[in-house]
Structure formats: structure tokens, C-alpha cells
Amino acid sequence: MAQKPSIPKGTRDFSPAEVAKRSYIIQTIKKHFETYGFQPIETPSFENSDTLMGKYGDEGDRLIFKILNSGDFISKVDDVTYSSKNSASLTPKISEKALRYDLTVPFARYVVMHQNEIDFPFKRYQIQPVWRADRPQKGRFREFYQCDADVVGANSLLQEVEFVKLYDAVFTNLGLKGATIKINNRKILSGIAEVIGAKHLLVDFTVALDKLDKIGEGKVKEEMLEKGISESAIEKAQPLFSMAGTASQQLEQLRGLLADSEVGMVGVGELDEIISTAEHIGLQSAQLQLDVTLARGLNYYTGAIFEVAAPEGVQMGSIGGGGRYDDLTGIFGLKDVSGVGISFGLDRIYLVLEELNLFPDSLDTSLDVLCLNFGKNEGLAALKLVSGLRKEGLRADLYPTDAKMQKQFKYADKRGVPYVILLGEQELLDGNFVVKNMVTGEQNAYKLDALGQFAELVKASF
């Protein structure tokens, strides 16, 4: 008996309707990327392992998919390493490449390798899949697309403001009103770690804090204790968990909390400038919100950090995020190149639009016109007609066989075709073709030499 086929957990097949909806989101994002002056690049699906490892923190490293070397890779491992059963020492011996975890680190690698070919500041966008060995759940997949935009070679905070505006423009265009753009600054978190006496545990502090909205305050504090952050330090950080009010009120509280931290005060100043400038310019439908507990666990962020939440009432993780990285290219030998970037979570945005019924109805239509098949002679004439309609810009097709009319109409109905053409023996004699509107049932005749007129009427109806 044949084995029942399956796909790996955390991956998906996409139907034609789903692909159409995903393409709608991608094209909307792409349009705004280009409107804001970003240029497209692409990088390989897999990178050398040393390009990726060590760039995302311990948790990120564990989620990187490793690719086994080709050939008899085990024979090249020495007996001591093999018998140790230690994955940390064995993995480098049998795997030299890995699937990319995100698009930012490969982009940094790209910038360093092509630094003599690009003009700085370099604004790039990239829309490609990434892979993470994560536990699959709603809105979290092992294979998913990221839609990234980054600027490198410019340290002006106007870039952060531009990204706030870009998020707002895209979500407004998608009809996703009420999205919340959360913002914080890693310098503020560094300052807090400094003033509470946990500067040496900054990574552990931020990784735990980043889980606040997922596991709650109590669990976050437990994790901090497990990581060696003292109870007294956690108590000093308590204002973080209860900070409220407007952005300006929270910034004022932070100034008091971070008065003895130079780096923390720099972070407060940067946030103040970004938020006040964005508020001065104004947003269309999104809200900009200061969230002092926002940490984002990736190690390369050094300044402003972003995370976008779906409109209130939608249970979904972040649908976008990003931040400033002052020296990401430094890990590949190109020092002092500041950058900032954001990402749109295509798959989660899809789920949110689906839940809120925000996809345009027209996306369900993959074919504008279907011409029925009445036989060999009529079919040849219909094929010529269909070819003419395609030249007029319509998505047109001919049913391939002269099956029963009921079967052909049923096919058109299942495909959601709005117009069906009947071109039988009598129509050929009259020099006409008959069009049936599948929604209203109305039928009209058109001259065979008037395809342009019919095509314009179809286009106008969409």
C-alpha cells in the first residue's frame, strides 16, 4: 500500500486563492517599499554556518536549521568526537551550511561583500522565505516569508521616523486600521541594567523581559532570578512593569530612573526625538506607543526597536518588528556602518486580514472569462476569440473539451468566473458571441469583431 504523503510540521501548501491573497499583501508592501526609495536585492536560501551562528543570541542559534554536508560526512568525523555524542562539537564537523534565520544578517554580509558596488546610504528591500526550527503554533511557522526594508550608512533618526511612516502607510493601504507600532530603545534597557546593578547580565535581562506579553510578569521575574539577576535588582526594575501614561509622561519617568546612566539618557533623548517628530508629521491610521518593556531578543539591536501589534481584539503575536543596529556589518569586517530596518510578518498579516475579512472580494476571481466548448469547429473559433480577449488584457480561457453544458457551467461556477461566453454554431453564423453574467444571469450578444468593446465593459465591472 502506498505511503500517505505529508509535509513537515510548520510548513504549508497554498491553494490558488491563498496565493492570490498572499500576493496582494506582498504587492502592497512592495509598492510602498519602492515609493519610499528602497531597492530590491535577493540572497541565497542558505548561508555558511559561520555567517549565521552567534548573531541571534543563544535562543536564536538553537532555532537555526543546519544542512548536512554532502557525501559520507560521518566518515570524516574522528572517533573521539563521534563517540562523545556532543552535538556542539559534532555539528561543525558534519554541517557547514544553514538555512537563513532572517534577512538582516545575510543583508549585512551582502553589504560587506558588495561595499564597492553600492552607494551609501543604501536602502534595500527584500521579500524572501526564512526558516526557524521553532515550535509550530498559530501564527508561528518553521518556513515563512519576511518582507524587510533596511537603510545602512545613515545614523539620522529621521530614518526611524520614516519607518514609522512606512508601517502606517502599508497597514492603512491594507485596511488594517488601528495597528499599534510599539517603540523602545535598547540604550534605555542597557541603562536600566546598569542602574539596577545587572549590566553584566544585559542579554539575560532583555531576553527575559522580551517575554513579558507571552508569559506574564511573574514568570519573567522567575526567569531573571534563574539567570542570576538578584531580587534587589529586579525590585529596582519594578517601575518598568507598571509604567503608564502618555509617551511624554513615560519619558519623564525614565529620565528620573536613568539619571545616573549616560547611555540610558541618550536612549531617552533618541526616543523623544523620534516620537515627537512622528507626532508632528502625523499618522494615518496606526498608533505609535512607547513600550518600555519591549526588548526584542536579537543581540544586534543597539538603538530604537519596533514591534507592531494587530488591532485590539485580534489575538496574534507581533505582525512586524525591527530596530537600529550600529555595527552589524562589523562582524564581517566593515566597521562603523550604522543601519536600521524593519520587517513585515507576511503570514501573520495574512491571518489578521482573514480574521477581519479585509481581503478584497476581487482576489477570489482568478479568471475573468471562460469560453464554453461546443465542438471541434466551434472550439477553434472560441480559441481564436480567447486569444483576442487575452490581447485585450483579460484573463480568459477555453474549456478544453466539449463536455455537457451542465458540467462546463458547474466548472465556471466553482472557479468563480464572472462571465461565460457561448459561441455555438448559430452564433458563428450570426458573427456574434453571447456573454452570460454568472451573477445576474443576464445574457447579451456582441459582434466577434468588437472584442475591445466587450473587454472594456468587463474591466469597468471590476
Compact description:
The chain has 462 residues and is an alpha+beta fold. It has helices at 16-35, 49-52, 57-62, 79-84, 87-94, 104-113, 158-173, 186-195, 202-209, 212-226, 231-236, 238-242, 247-257, 262-281, 346-355, 376-391, 405-415, 425-430, 451-460; strands at residues 39-40, 46-48, 66-67, 97-99, 122-131, 143-152, 180-185, 287-290, 304-309, 320-325, 339-345, 369-371, 396-398, 419-422, 432-437, 443-447.
Detail the topology: elements first, then pairings.
Layout: H1 16-35, E1 39-40, E2 46-48, H2 49-52, H3 57-62, E3 66-67, H4 79-84, H5 87-94, E4 97-99, H6 104-113, E5 122-131, E6 143-152, H7 158-173, E7 180-185, H8 186-195, H9 202-209, H10 212-226, H11 231-236, H12 238-242, H13 247-257, H14 262-281, E8 287-290, E9 304-309, E10 320-325, E11 339-345, H15 346-355, E12 369-371, H16 376-391, E13 396-398, H17 405-415, E14 419-422, H18 425-430, E15 432-437, E16 443-447, H19 451-460
Helix pairs in contact: 1-7, 1-15, 7-14, 8-14, 9-10, 13-14
Written description of the protein model:
There is one protein chain. By secondary structure, the protein is of the alpha+beta class. It has two domains: 16-42 and 108-123 and 135-356, Bira Bifunctional Protein, Domain 2 (BirA Bifunctional Protein, domain 2, 2-Layer Sandwich), CATH 3.30.930; 369-460, Rossmann fold (3-Layer(aba) Sandwich). Helices cover 43% and strands 17% of the residues. The chain contains 19 helices and 16 strands. It has helices spanning 16-35, 49-52, 57-62, 79-84, 87-94, 104-113, 158-173, 186-195, 202-209, 212-226, 231-236, 238-242, 247-257, 262-281, 346-355, 376-391, 405-415, 425-430, 451-460; strands spanning 39-40, 46-48, 66-67, 97-99, 122-131, 143-152, 180-185, 287-290, 304-309, 320-325, 339-345, 369-371, 396-398, 419-422, 432-437, 443-447. The strands form three sheets. An eight-stranded mixed β-sheet has the order 1-5-6-11-10-9-7-8. A hairpin with a 5-residue loop joins strand 15 and strand 16 (443-447). Helix 1 crosses helix 15, helix 8 (186-195) runs antiparallel to helix 14 and helix 9 packs antiparallel against helix 10. The model has no long low-confidence stretch (mean pLDDT 89). Residues 1-400 form the Aminoacyl-transfer RNA synthetases class-II family profile domain. L-histidine binds at residues 102-104, 132, 146, 150, 296, 300-301. Its EC number is 6.1.1.21.
